[in-house]
Design brief:
alpha/beta; TIM Barrel; 8-stranded parallel β-barrel; 3-stranded antiparallel sheet; 11 helices
Length: 329
């Protein structure tokens, strides 16, 4: 079972590698990846430096080119594929079938991992991608129960990777229209739910207001942690009560069911958080490395201590195992 950790910049990559990641995933400095924030991601020179450091420590580097190309900017995606492969990236994480076809016309053997953005949730879908594009692995959306994940790991033609820790999304990945409703910019093509140019902050005495394209998303009291404004995690007045209407800030943490995921044949655990700090990456990687090693060794496993420590790093300082606990299919 691989531990796949996020790296939004070189310091985060170093922390992930030093704390036991088997692979790190990165993005280029453009909208071809689903974490297209200012200050994040890698230039050509930084990628070379990252690959050298990771490979020196027996760690792979995956590159996410996992947004959906716009017709008038198709060359941005193909140029990004060319650059990543030429620089020595180990694997590309891809959602769009046109991009996959371009990769296969360039190389019949270069490893492709199906991105969570493709929202593939059935054996038939995974086998389709394997048959037509020879994908090696698929990252599953965070909408499946443990029983469904186990079935896919058993029956599909490809390796299965699942998210183990990090922010959640109420949408089936790759299918979100909420932010484009407010801004006209889609996260599926722009690589970010709330583009910075549409975000406004305003202090009103002891109250901090966050807005997205001038629409009020939330108000934060003096001692509250202020989250980045996204429509799905905003607080709204509903029937006279102010509340999170769609999703409370919370993080996924599947460490409690790690032995079951391992027994099911899950090939890799993915940590979300390319937008998070190097300290976050270091701490999460350390605890998950320890947990995976314990489970693989067959030693008795208790997630109580790491779950308690990781709680401090979670959104809203609360965690859930999300859809994994569902008993229906």
């Amino acid at each position: 079972m691989e531990l796949v950790c996020p790296a939004g910049n070189f310091p985060s990559l170093v922390k992930a590698v030093d704390n036991g990641a088997n692979a790190v995933y990165i993005g280029l400095k453009n909208e071809t990846n689903a974490r297209h924030f200012a200050g994040l991601n890698f230039s050509k020179q930084q990628i070379v430096k990252a690959i050298n450091y990771a490979h020196k420590h027996n760690c792979k580097v995956y590159c996410a080119i996992n947004t959906y190309p716009r017709e008038n900017r198709w060359s941005r995606w193909t140029e990004s594929v060319d650059q990543a492969i030429d620089l020595g990236i180990d694997t590309l994480i891809v959602a769009d079938i046109g991009v996959m076809d371009y990769i296969r016309n360039k190389s019949q053997t270069f490893p492709i991992h199906l991105s969570v953005q493709a929202s593939a949730t059935s054996v038939e879908a995974l086998n389709f991608y394997h048959r037509h594009f020879s994908i090696k692995r698929a990252v599953l959306p965070r909408v499946l129960s443990l029983a469904q994940v186990a079935t896919l790991a058993k029956k599909s033609s490809v390796e299965i990777e699942v998210f183990g820790f990090g922010s959640l999304c109420i949408m089936a990945e790759g299918r979100c229209y909420l932010s484009s409703y407010l801004t006209g910019e889609s996260p599926n093509t722009q690589g970010v739910c709330s583009p910075a140019s549409y975000v406004q902050w305003e202090n009103k005495g002891d109250i901090l207001e966050s807005r997205l394209n001038h629409l009020l998303i939330d108000r934060f009291e003096k001692n509250e942690n202020a989250g980045y404004p996204t429509l799905c995690k905003g607080r709204f007045d509903i029937a006279g009560k102010t509340q999170h209407a769609m999703e409370e800030p919370t993080s996924l943490n599947t460490m409690d069911i790690l032995p079951e995921l391992y027994q099911a044949g899950v090939a890799a655990i993915k940590i979300e958080g390319r937008q998070r700090s190097p300290a976050y990456v270091a701490t999460v990687a350390k605890y998950w490395r320890r947990a995976i090693d314990q489970v693989k060794s067959g030693r008795s496993f208790s997630a109580a201590e790491p779950i308690s420590c990781l709680q401090e790093l979670a959104e809203g300082k609360q965690t859930t195992i999300g859809a994994y606990e569902r008993d229906w299919q």
